[in-house]
């Protein structure tokens, strides 16, 4: 199987490294920086490379494409692949805005191939366990979804061209969409200090199912030591909490602690799922382009609420 990765930055390297460890694939990369391309060839034993992704798609003729470029380049590459019948996995945010995401949904529907959104936490065993607890009714009907995801201040310089809502909070928006099984109808949001990405962003949304989502993200911690990512879901008959690296606490019909596996590798699970979909000729992913669209619509509600402050 031939897999091409578009983008040789941090995320592109992670995909290449994981694909090589999975094995059974021939790899190629598109990267604009010549010195970086040559370095990647040596690191990952690539069969082909080019500065232009569209040229490489034509020449390499991949069985699957992973798009790990900046967000503005996602849609043109994904559409080009889908028109060729090439399945594509697109890193988050899948598109820079909901209008572009609608175009991707249309391209996916018109193609014999498929688009797999890169919402990686849907492939995390601990998050899947949490989802099962909620959806199987252990805590009763879902009432409230709460999350916090904090990162250090280096994110401000590393991701100058993307808002924290689209870079970090998008994970929690997608989790809320997944757990609730619904779309957001309205949003209120605040950012302190205002006018800078080095801040705390908090959003409260109401969904079509009558569930509230309370999401917080920050890029302000001075060093790598940040609080663990945390999700708490409240139902009519209890609650359940996941703290990254610490486990799941269930306070419901069957109260218990569930340990989190130390070897959890959601990227490997995501790529294995992508490869399985390529072999089957249809996506096997627990996330759809429509889910990604619902997430972007919610993100835009939050961004509008912030702009009105």
**Structural class by sheet pairing and helices:** alpha/beta
By DSSP (H or I, 4+ residues per run), the number of helices equals 10
Multimerization state = single chain
Identify low-pLDDT runs.
Answer: none
CATH topology of the largest domain: Dihydrodipicolinate Reductase, domain 2
For the sheet with most strands, the description reads: 8 strands, mixed
Relevant CATH superfamily of the largest domain:
Dihydrodipicolinate Reductase, domain 2
Number of strands: 14
Average pLDDT taken over every residue: 96
CATH class of the largest domain: Alpha Beta
The shape, in one word, is: globular
Q: Round the Cα radius of gyration to an integer and report it.
A: 20 Å
Indicate the proportion of strand residues.
Answer: 25-35%
Distance linking N and C termini = 50 Å
Key features of this structure:
globular; Dihydrodipicolinate Reductase, domain 2; Rossmann fold; alpha/beta; six-stranded parallel beta sheet; eight-stranded mixed beta sheet; 39% helix; 10 helices; single chain; 309 residues
Please characterize this protein's 3D structure:
- The protein is of the alpha/beta class and 309 residues long.
- The protein folds into 2 domains: 2-119, Rossmann fold (3-Layer(aba) Sandwich), CATH 3.40.50.720; 122-267 and 295-307, Dihydrodipicolinate Reductase, domain 2 (2-Layer Sandwich), CATH 3.30.360.
- The protein is built from 10 helices and 14 strands.
- The protein has helices spanning 10-22, 34-44, 53-60, 74-83, 98-110, 125-135, 154-158, 164-180, 266-280, 289-307, and strands spanning 2-6, 26-30, 48-50, 64-67, 88-91, 115-118, 142-152, 184-192, 200-207, 212-221, 230-235, 238-243, 247-251, 256-258.
- It has an 8-stranded mixed sheet.
- Helix 2 links the parallel strand 2 (26-30) and strand 3.
- The longest helix has 19 residues, at 289-307.
- It is globular, with a radius of gyration of 20 Å.
- The model has no long low-confidence stretch (mean pLDDT 96).
């Amino acid at each position: 199987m031939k897999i091409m990765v578009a983008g040789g930055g941090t995320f592109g390297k992670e995909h290449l490294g994981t694909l090589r460890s999975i094995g059974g694939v021939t790899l190629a990369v598109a990267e604009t920086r010549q010195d970086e391309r040559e370095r990647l060839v040596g690191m990952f034993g690539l069969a082909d490379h080019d500065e232009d992704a569209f040229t490489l798609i034509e020449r390499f003729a991949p069985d699957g494409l992973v798009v790990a470029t900046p967000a503005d380049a996602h849609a043109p590459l994904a559409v080009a692949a889908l028109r060729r019948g090439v399945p594509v996995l697109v890193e988050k945010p899948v598109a820079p805005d909901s209008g572009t995401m609608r175009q991707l949904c249309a391209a996916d529907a018109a193609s014999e191939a498929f688009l797999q959104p890169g919402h990686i936490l849907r492939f995390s065993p601990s998050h899947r366990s949490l989802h099962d607890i909620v959806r199987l009714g252990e805590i009763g009907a879902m009432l409230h979804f709460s999350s916090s995801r904090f990162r250090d201040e280096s994110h401000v310089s590393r991701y100058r061209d993307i808002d924290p809502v689209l870079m970090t909070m998008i994970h929690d928006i997608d989790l809320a969409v997944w757990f609730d099984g619904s779309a957001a109808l309205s949003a209120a949001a605040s950012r302190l200090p205002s006018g800078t990405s080095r801040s705390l962003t908090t959003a409260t949304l109401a969904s079509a199912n009558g569930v509230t989502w309370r999401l917080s993200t920050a890029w302000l911690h001075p060093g790598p030591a940040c609080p663990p990512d945390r999700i708490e879901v409240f139902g009519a008959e209890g609650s359940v909490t996941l703290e990254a690296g610490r486990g799941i606490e269930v306070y419901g019909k069957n109260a218990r602690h569930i340990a989190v596996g130390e070897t959890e590798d959601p990227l490997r699970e995501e790529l294995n799922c992508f490869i399985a979909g390529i072999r089957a000729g249809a996506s096997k992913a627990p996330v759809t382009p429509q889910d990604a669209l619902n997430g972007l619509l919610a993100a835009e509600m939050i961004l509008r609420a912030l702009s009105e402050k």
